[in-house]
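A note from the maintainers: we've had questions about how concatenated examples are separated. There is no special marker in the raw files; a new sequence line simply starts the next protein. For clarity in this README we add a label.
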Amino acid sequence: MQLGIGMPSHISHVPGPSTVQWARRAEQRGFAGLATIDRLVYESLDSIVALSAAAGATSEIGLITNVLLAPLYPAALLAKQLATIADVSGDRLIVGLGVGNRTDDYAAVGVDFRRRGRVLDETVGLLGEAWRAAPVTGDKALCPRPVRIPVLFGGRSEATMRRVVTMGNGWSAGALRDYDNQASFADRARAAWQEAGRSGQPLVHASVNFAFGDEDTVRLGREHLQRYYGFRPDYAALNVADMLTTPEDAAATVRAYRDLGFDGLVFHSCVTGVDQVDRLADAVL
């Protein structure tokens, strides 16, 4: 199982230069991937730009959107941006896609929140064409050459299952350590994959939130989760309670997901200090 670390780009008022520092340190310490979380109406950094900066600051570590809210973006523009990251980074990109639950994100870009699932399906169709360097309008392609970008879908709905099996390469589970339900959905995805006649197995990734350090650091991490998910107080409380606070918790989480047969696990930091990279590496690598 490959272990990744999320950059702090989604944390409110994060210092911009920390993104590059974080990326370089994560690669030095041997993490398999760097991930971003997507959100628009929040005092955070743009996830695609942050991932681009990370791509330029590194040479080998994987790059992951976990997850990107695809319906917020014009499909052709998104296709070109992601293809560019994949191309310039040497095909290090894995794209996790989802729809999110924030109505203000959709209002800000003028996309109908109620149609977000349909828009995602339409977007994914265009992404596939664009990444094959096929013309998507007229006789010109968006990309200079084909790129291979694995696509994972976030969520637990039946629509998510359909997308995983018919349109993607796998599933990206949420950040709560609900092991029984995570394992159940993963098993269903594997079974549906086989029933659809697809070769191999779907990729199955998970994520978890963490903040390691003294009491103030842990408090700041929990306050971040409370703010970030404040639009859903019950869900925010679950994330606060589930946040990892010790190296022992992190190591146990790795063992649990490895035993469930997951292919990847991303640790999302809830504080911005680059020391979190070293603290996590010491715990799980």
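[label: protein 2]
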Amino acid sequence: MTASGRNTPGTGPAGRERQPAEPRRSAVVPHALAGRGVLPRRVALLSVHTSPLEQPGTGDAGGMNVYITQSATAMARRGVSVEIFTRATSSDQPPVAELAPGVLVRHIPAGPYEALDRAELPAQLCAFTAGVLRAEAFQPPGYYDVVHSHYWLSGQVGWLAAERWGVPLVHSAHTLAKVKNAALADGDNPEPRTRVFGEQQLVHEADRLIANTAVEAENLVELYEADPAAVDTVAPGVDLGSFTPGSAEAARAELGVPQDAVVLAFAGRLQPLKAPDVLLRAAAELIHRRPTLRERLVVTIAGGPSGTGFEQPEAWQDLARALGIAELTRFLPPQPTDDLVRVFRAADVVAVPSHNESFGLVALEAQACGTPVVAADVGGLPVAVAHGVSGLLVSSRCTGQWADALGAVALDPAYRAYLSANAVTHARRFSWQHTTDALLSVYASAMAEARSRQAVRSEVAV
């Protein structure tokens, strides 16, 4: 064990050899803990490469931004102050901005005031860490009670900050390099060894690891040799106040979509990982099978370039033209929440064909609007989508199978109505309130374990 009490590679808590165990699931109601005074007063959240103030759907902004924003806001409603540290990308950004009551965003200068590719960010971690430590130095001792880092770049900063402040480090990977590289999309670049090494370090140094699903928890244990007792499975949620069922007719009228159209939709970052090409090819196949469908089919793709998608930002439009469906395809920019709700309500089915997803928030959001989802059977999507109940899972990338699944939902009103009703029920099992309850439980447990370690060290010192 390190001087801070964290685990070293090959050991579990207190230096014990790792024993087989199931990753734990957090389910403690926070108000019950609050009476015992163990909830954190203030949490430091780290998000180096993307700000929660950015619009999801383009660049590096995606589900992680939603996760941080929603969970931080929910924590603040419970009386826990939250400060989010992110890299400043413009000189116009204020040093501190309020995201919501009780939630502050601190913009830390690190490198040039511009967006940087994630491959360029490791060189700025020293500067970012210095800014985080400097911000804390102006506060009274014990200002933060726990550090929660999101993505491996933030974890590297959180590792040092938690050591320096003497508080627990909780880490969420969101995606894992070894998992992504095992299911790499055509035209996508593999994750570098630097990231693999960084993730491995964090797995052994963090006090707690948050996994979105049991599959991710297993990946941490099997691929990174995580201590199972240090892994907590906490499912992300969905904003059930914003993503709600509504009139498809009204949504189509506002979007200018014909009422009798067959609408297939995709929402997310436009990059090979998210595989919007799968939807385009399947749509073309449906028209090949049923030529008359050309008169009614509308394919809506909402999002902006991201990752290697920046190398060919018009690749998806070019593909639509090559497939002969350009006139049927509508490309929309990243959508704010209210507009995204409209896109989902107007659709007959939403496709989530990603090569990998640690969870797949878009799938939950669409279902909460009453729209069935056809998703790839990968990562956390089998949790986000109940196969045959709220949507369908496709186990291959075969164009024919995707056309089968999309057609089965979009072209059968009775089946679609069945899935739609179940989709709403399924989505309501997830909420940011439940997610936050579980996160606060993990924080409280990690803090209690840290206090116990400190007590043992104090006794040994005496």
